[in-house]
Design brief:
By secondary structure, the protein is α/β, with parallel strands linked by helices. It is built from 13 helices and nine strands. The chain has helices at about 20-30, 75-90, 105-115, 135-140, 150-175, 200-220, 235, 250-255, 260-265, 280-285, 290-300, 310-315, 330-350; strands at about 10, 60, 65, 125-130, 180-185, 220-225, 245, 270-275, 315-320. The strands form two sheets. It has a seven-stranded parallel beta sheet. Strand 5, helix 6 and strand 6 (about 220-225) form a beta-alpha-beta unit. The model has no long low-confidence stretch (mean pLDDT about 95).
Length: about 350
């Protein structure tokens, strides 16, 4: 799988500010090849643990809890699995179920959907995103303060919730006749293997990622994952993910420790999305230069056994993380820098 060109730019999804229209205009201006839909965490209902949790049995959006002892939990759980099976068995359209995303829950998604047909030239692909199953199941807690992930039954609910909310995005966006990429946003994977998640096995994490990525792929989408710090990258490779997106500005050296695994991943059809433009520290963004970022990326490619041009054709370019925490006036700077890096690489290697 490749994206018909040379390291096209795309975005993680989050933006500063409160205007979805303004954010989408910037997306179309700087990343027209693979536009994504904008998420604005300035709105509480677009927070990472809230936006995709509507419909979960026992979900308390104020306390960010899943409570199996809450009134009506068993009835909600029964409805959840009935609708899940109805979608899986083709008895119901996903848009008719609790797994659909409403316009008030994800306005940026529907804005992208309504505006795509007006774009000229047409994009090469469209991108959506969703909080990953590991991050959502470790971020949500039970009333006793434990992460939901430690309860196998609640973990299953969260995993299937993420899978079908991702499926909804694929079904909506593929109406435009373009490839659809869905990134699982998994910042919590940076803590996997640490004392933060004692008792969580690699097999358990791989299983939830594989279930969601399989659902995306079965629907005709392309599953990717975004991790904004270091993690065990071989875990992602073995989970069915097709695009690995990482912070190549701060964690490039650690990522390259897995160069043999990454080489095999690329050779077998995988793709790497290099988060080369810094967005986590304003000072880094202010001082970064496209020429230096391009040089670092090309040097990284040289450490693999594959030809540099072949690697870049199996690559995407992104910011290092979402831009939701940036001052609003810095977002265009990050986007312009991303575009410059792309244009520099295209001029040298096309």
């Amino acid at each position: 799988m490749s994206f018909f060109g040379l390291a096209y730019p795309t975005l993680i999804g989050s933006f500063p500010g409160k205007s979805h229209e303004k954010a989408l205009s910037l997306i179309f201006e700087f990343t027209p090849e693979i536009p994504c839909w904008p998420q604005l965490p300035a709105y509480s209902n677009e927070g990472m643990l809230v936006q995709f949790s509507s419909g979960l049995p026992g979900f308390d959006p104020e306390k960010l809890l899943l409570d199996p002892e809450s009134p009506g939990f068993e009835e909600e759980q029964l409805r959840f699995y009935e609708e899940y099976l109805a979608v899986k068995e083709g008895q119901k359209s996903i848009s008719e179920t609790i797994f659909s995303l409403k316009e008030e829950e994800a306005p940026g998604l529907f804005l992208l959907h309504h505006r795509v047909s007006s774009l000229s030239p047409r994009p090469y692909a469209l991108k959506g995103q969703i909080t990953g199953p590991f991050t959502l199941a470790t971020g949500l807690k039970t009333p006793d303060g434990k992460a939901v992930f430690y309860d196998p039954g609640l973990r299953d609910l969260v995993t299937k919730q993420v899978a079908l909310k991702a499926l909804f995005q694929v079904e909506l966006l593929k109406k435009h006749g373009l490839p659809v990429i869905i990134f699982l946003d998994e910042p919590a994977l940076a803590g996997f293997g640490s004392s933060s998640f004692v008792g969580v096995s690699k097999a358990e994490v791989e299983a939830v990622l594989r279930e969601v990525s399989s659902e995306i792929e079965a629907a005709g989408g392309i599953p990717g994952v975004h991790v904004c710090a270091n993690t065990e990258w071989d875990l992602l490779i073995s989970s069915g993910i097709k695009i690995i997106n990482f912070d190549a500005f701060d964690y490039l050296d650690r990522f390259l420790l897995y160069r043999d695994d990454i080489s095999s991943f690329l050779s077998s059809g995988g793709n790497v999305a290099w988060g080369i433009v810094p967005t986590l520290k304003v000072e880094d963004l202010k001082t970064a230069r496209a020429q230096e970022l391009s040089r670092r990326l090309k040097e990284a490619c040289e450490s693999f056994d594959l030809p540099q041009k072949e690697i870049l054709k199996k690559s995407l370019l992104t910011p290092s993380c979402g831009m939701g925490t940036l001052p609003e006036e810095m977002a265009p700077r990050a986007l312009a820098l991303l575009r410059e890096v792309y244009e520099s690489l295209r001029a040298e290697l096309s």
